[in-house]
Amino acid sequence: MDAKALKSSLKTAVENIKLKKYVETVKICKDILAAHPQHSRALVFLGKAAEGLNKTQIALESYQKATEYAEDGDMLPWQGLCAFYEKHAPKDPTLLSDVYTKLIELYSSNKQKELETKYKLCKHLLNQATYTKEVAAKCFELCSHLTDESEQFEVRKDLAEFCMNSEVTEAKVMLHELCLLLSQTSSFPDDELDLWETHTKYIYEKEEHLKLVLQWTDKMLRAYPHCSTFSVIVAEIHCQLSVCGSFDSQLVDLATVKLNLLTSQLLNFFNRFLPGAPFTDSICPEKLSPQLQCCGFLFQARKLFEMKSFKQVPAVLEKALLALNHVPRCLSTCVSTYKQQMDDLKLLLNFKQKKYQEVINVCNDEGNAEFVKRHCRMLSISYIEVGNFTKAESMLGEDKALQGYMELKQDSLSEAFNLLTAALVESPKSVEVNLWLGQVCYLTPERLSEAAKYLLTAAKLDPTNEESFLFLGLYYNKIGDKTKGLKCIKKAYSLNAADDKICLAYVDELMALGYNNEAKEILVRTTQLASVEHCKWAWFRLGNLMIQDGNFTEAANCFQQALRSDSKDSNCWECLADSYVKRGSYAPAILAFTEALKINPNSFYSKYSIALSKYKLGLNSESLEQYLEVLSMKPGYIPALKGLGDVHLAVAREALNQCIYGKAVSNINSAVSYLTEAAVGRPNLSCIWKSLGDALNLTFHLPLNSRYKCPQLLTDITGSSKDLTSVEVDGRTALAIASRCYSQCSHLNPNHSQSWHDLAVNYLSQAKLLSEDQKEKKRSMLLSAVQFCLKALSLDRGIAEYYNLLGVLYLQPDIFDALAAQHYLILAVELDQKNAVGWTNLGSLYLKQDKVTLAHKAFSAAQSADPKYVECWVGQAMVAQIIGDNEAMDLFRHATDLGHNIEGRLSYAQWVLQTLIENKGDNSEYFKYSIEKLEAVPTSCYALGNIIDMVPVAQAFDTYGLLLERLGLYKMAAKALTDCVQIADDDCPNMVHYRSNLARVLCKTGDYNSCLDQLKLQAHQSEYDVSVAALACYKKRAYSESWEKYKELLEMVESDEMKSHIYAALGMLSVKCGDAEAAKTFFFQCSQYDAASTQGLAAFCSLALLTGEGELAVAALTELLRCPDDADTVRLKCMFSSYMEALKGELFVSRNHLLKGIHSNPLDLALHSQLLTLSVEHMPESSESVLRLCDSVNSVQMLAAVARLSSGHVTSALRLIQKATHTYPGDSSNWVLLLCVVRAARSAADTGHMTDSTESSLLAVSNMHRTDMKESLLEWLNYFTH
């Protein structure tokens, strides 16, 4: 390529670069380089084009080749490479530095370009992270060549910052030089503060001439007046210069220094030690010199003392003393001055804090006469304050003021007044004399009016003396000016908030005037700042304020804090207990009151509060004892009398829930007695009358035949009687008295809605007890109850109980209003969705209207609201009963288990009785579970027995009697059925049934005459009545009458089974009459029926065996074996089959029959006894196996032992009875027999022969009669010994 074409191509490449046609440029440059490979311009253009195409690596290589092939003086390749490096920083910063250096050489003829490049080189070098000596030196040199002042200043500033990051000495030196140069032109902007701080610290450390440093630092402080570093350095220099004597020595003595004598810089330093001023890092005390620390802390202590922040002063003085210990010895004069000032300040601090004994101790321990002389007056006052008047008098001299003050402390007010008046003449402007004179006048009633004059004078003379304002406030309070009193005490508090006496007076004044929030703020602040030991009073009052605000937990915490400082304060323990009582924590309250009693055993309030707390916890017996102890200390104490009444009332309610009616009646009587006595003492207390009404109103839930003791004062309707003698009243009278008590309560407190509600409940109770012929009175009482309830609602519409009562009232038959009842009951449940009583009553209303589904839903809602509410379960059971669900019985049983309820218990008992009647002889799973497994009969009998007196209904007593008969309690059953007959009317349709049941039970009890008398009262005797009469005549051995009755019954019955039983009875009756042939005839007739009597066949077989008619016995046994099997029939079959085989001599067959019966009924005692007798007497070889078989039956073991004893086998008998006693240790019969057998064994061992076994057996029988033995066992033993 020729020169012309080359020039044209280069020109085209330049134009393309300007037009950003980099691809064409690359093509042109490659063509040029193909012809001229070392053409530097083409390489530069190629690099530029590649850079434009973001091909940085190609661009860098092109620029580097261009610099290699560039001719001397050709700057373009180096400019291109420099521009590339500036845009794309190389990993090695020296590459760019080298390029700048080369350009500086190339620009030697162009000064402007040269300076610009040098400036860039400096900036590039200073951007490096770490300091190097070479870089700093080079930059410093380059900077000296710059002519532009702004650029030169900027480079020097950057260089200075570069040197600041290094601790190298050379860097510090260069930094110092740079700062000196910079200070000549700098305007000291804020962004240069760090630079000047570093430089100032450097020269302060290195410069020996402090005045030069002070001049420089003053210059910096004027530029940066808020910089603490310069202030500290100035202050330190001033202090050092002062110590060296260059300044006024007053600057050292901070006890006499005034702020206006200090330089502005030193004042700025000390201001940073003012209380509350935070220390910055640069003024942290640990970084100051020891003498400067001591100056600052002593200044701070003085300021705190002036501000009366006495509790912070000791800590600051400790810091000052610690700094003073590090001051050089050469400054001994300064050290002694500081030490003296600190000692004086400590003593003055103790005096101001009223630590007079510590003042005395310090002065005595000091042993320095000069120190004591300097503080003689302070020491004298301290002796007066601690009561050491002898020592104080020796120091007073002629000081009449102190003499008067000492007389004031000794309560010699007249002498004190004279002395202080004389002192006032000598020193009319003495603050202390005026203050003490004011105190004397304040304490002297006849001079009270003069107190204000002296106290006001003292306050004017020294407006910072808090005691003057304190006594002024007390004076104004004493004369009744509470407003001025509060202002003065507030002024005293503002002057010295750390004084507990002033703070206490201020808080008490605020609380007395009702400013509780302000008082609380002060108390909270006091408790936060002071330790627990020194602010008991604050915690105590804060606790009382918390109680007033209802914050009982915080109150308890406050009292606990107060007790930490003084655990022997009984009042504080009582307040702590009160806070526990207020929040309902009665157990901790009892413990706190007990602690108070340990400190003060005669504390009447603690004993009363313990009784009340135990009542709240339900510890009624302990509460009664405590209340009685309170009354023994203070007879007639109304709260204790009311408390006793309330406790007895609570016990009565418990007894009522447990159906212990006698206990309930007794406690009601006691409650009425105590509450009446309280009402006589304070007839204007509505709460006493309410409790009286509650006690008497409880009689509604007790049996109507109960009698109660009421004072004549209550029974007198006119109210004129004051007699407290008790008279007996019935339940109706008690309810009437209760209504008068509620009326008195409403009269005393007409806005108390609960008393109106209770009065309505009482009227409802009275109306329920009225008879049917008193309908008008009943209606009137119910309407009055409605009005009372509406009155309660008008006073408080937010109580669901009132709406519920209105609904119940409108459900009463005499004023029945279904819509009104439904309306109020729905309002009750809407007001309280968890109102189980309201839902139950609503369900009862729906049940009464035959709305079974709605009733079921209402009862279900009640069950959800309170699963333990009995009545809702009873209602649900009634629903189940209506729809014919067998779960009704289970629901009634559950209601019975839950608690006291008449309807539920009576219904459950009737269900049990009905189930027994309908399932007689049934062994179904339902019967076994509901009756046998759940023990339904004893459970229902117990439940019904608890409420039977509350149900004067014949059917209830009849049910109760039948259940007792089922349990074998015949005498109790006879009593219940007798009450049933007495309650029922003669024209009652069930009277025949009731008399029949009574006659049957009387016959079972052995009262045959009464049984026959009851049956004679029957207008028409049924077959059953005649059979009972015949049995009663038979039992009383009136055989002829019994014969007639059975003959009569035979004509009445029609069933073959009954006729068979009657013939059996006639046969047994014939045997008793001695007519065996007639008996055989009757027994034979008995056996001729298909459903023959098993008892008759057994008797027939027995008679045949006794008369020796074997064929007849076999025939009777054959008929017996045909009878259906049950427990009694199986036993009879086995026993008679065994007898028959034994008579034939077939003993093993006889034994097998008995074993078969035992297998069918393992607990049949008769079969066990028969088998044991057969084995012992006739089959001794098998007796052991038989005994093992009978091992589980205790009675059989005893029989076997007695049998062995009677037969003379004492050893065998002893073994058997030992085994029985070991197996059944709780059976007393075993122990009796064991003693008898041991006696016989010992006798045999002593005499060598057996004693009369009959005697031992008789002894066993006589002893067993004294124990609780079974009748069958006693009969067997009696028979065996005769």
Q: Could you walk me through the main structural features you see in this protein, from its secondary elements to its overall organization?
A:
- With 1282 residues, this protein is mainly alpha-helical.
- Helices cover 74% and strands 1% of the residues.
- Strands 1-2 form a two-stranded antiparallel ribbon.
- Helix 3 packs antiparallel against helix 4 (56-69).
- The longest helix has 21 residues, at 332-352.
Condensed summary:
The chain is mostly helical and 1282 residues long. The protein contains 70 helices and 2 strands.
What would the keywords be for this entry?
single chain; 1282 residues; mainly alpha; two-stranded antiparallel ribbon; 1% strand; disordered C terminus
List the helices and strands and how they pair.
Elements: H1 3-18, H2 22-35, H3 40-52, H4 56-69, H5 76-87, H6 93-106, H7 111-126, H8 133-145, H9 149-164, H10 169-183, H11 193-206, H12 210-223, H13 228-243, H14 264-271, H15 290-306, H16 313-324, H17 332-352, H18 356-366, H19 369-374, H20 376-386, H21 389-396, H22 400-409, H23 413-426, H24 431-443, H25 448-461, H26 466-478, H27 482-495, H28 500-512, H29 516-529, H30 536-549, H31 552-565, H32 570-583, H33 586-599, H34 604-616, H35 620-633, H36 638-657, H37 661-681, H38 686-697, E1 708-711, H39 712-715, E2 726-729, H40 731-748, H41 753-768, H42 775-795, H43 800-810, H44 818-831, H45 836-848, H46 852-865, H47 870-882, H48 887-898, H49 902-918, H50 925-933, H51 936-947, H52 954-966, H53 970-983, H54 991-1005, H55 1008-1016, H56 1023-1035, H57 1039-1052, H58 1056-1072, H59 1076-1087, H60 1094-1107, H61 1110-1121, H62 1127-1143, H63 1147-1160, H64 1165-1178, H65 1183-1189, H66 1194-1206, H67 1210-1223, H68 1228-1247, H69 1253-1266, H70 1271-1281
Antiparallel strand pairs: 1-2
Helix pairs in contact: 1-2, 1-3, 2-3, 3-4, 3-5, 4-5, 5-6, 6-7, 7-8, 7-9, 8-9, 9-10, 10-11, 11-12, 12-13, 13-14, 15-16, 15-17, 16-17, 17-18, 18-20, 20-21, 20-22, 21-22, 22-23, 22-24, 23-24, 24-25, 24-26, 25-26, 26-27, 27-28, 28-29, 29-30, 30-31, 30-32, 31-32, 32-33, 33-34, 34-35, ...
